[in-house]
Amino acid sequence: MYDMTDRPIHQFNLGWKLALVEKGLADKSLLETYSAERLPVISEMLELTTTILNQATTGDVMNRRSPILFMLGINCRFSSIVLDEFVTPVEGKPIKAYGVLEEGYLEAGDRAPDAPNLLHVGPGETDVKTLFSLYRPWYHTVLVFAPSPADATPILTALESYDKGVIRSAVILPSSVPTTRVASAADLVLLDQEGHAYSAYVVEATEIKVFVIRPDGVIGAIIHGAEGMKKYFSKIFLDV
Fold first, then answer.
1. CA-CA distances (angstroms) from residue 50 to 29, 45, 46, 62, 184?
2. pLDDT tens per residue across span 5-34
3. Is residue 27 within 8 Å of 21, Cβ to Cβ?
4. Is 87 helix (H, G, I), strand (E, B) or coil?
5. Other C-beta atoms within 10 Å of 227: how many?
6. Taking the model in full, what pTM does it have?
7. How far apart are the first and last CA of the chain?
8. What phi and psi values does residue 144 have, to the nearest 5 degrees?
9. Cβ(26)–Cβ(238) under 8 Å?
10. For helices 32-58 and 13-22, angle between their N-to-C axes, nearest 10 degrees
11. Cα angle value 195/198/200 (rounded, 5°)
């Protein structure tokens, strides 16, 4: 089974883009974003390893267990194909691609966090899932955090015009929603029964917030609704 738990966010950066171009679903220009997203990460990595080497050779050894060395904070917030409607762009803001995880903060371009103990409340399956168990390297996953299934309907309706082979959807409901089976156009409806998903994705139980998770495990977009989703996918797919 595929698992996102210990995979670097850039491991599949090029693969999913090549696949979309080969299928005729994306323009070849999408491939140019591979270098644009990877080079800042490589540059910072080289600076960091050079610093470690210099300090080791002079006897001034830095803390080699610094959180930055775990690479979980690697991001592409600066990428031209990510979209965040909750962050105000800052002109000339320095790129920190090789950063550390910031508790209680999440931005488009970050590694998508996991969340356990999600209860399937849609038709069919009844098992408990994790968010990482939903993600795959061959499709985008649209997470719709909504107070009720009805609140997610406009986003799900907008998704109907896209190729179902490259986009999947999941509605994430807060723990306050009754655990009855619900009908929905989403591929999955999940109850965040212990609040892990709402906490990890920094969402209030009363708000609607949409996250588009790229095939490489990066948050491609954090948006308010259907219009933002269309804007994001117009950066990825042809004829959108």
1. 33, 8, 6, 12, 53
2. 445 555 689 999 999 999 999 999 999 999
3. yes
4. coil
5. 13
6. 0.88
7. 32
8. -110, 105
9. yes
10. 170
11. 100
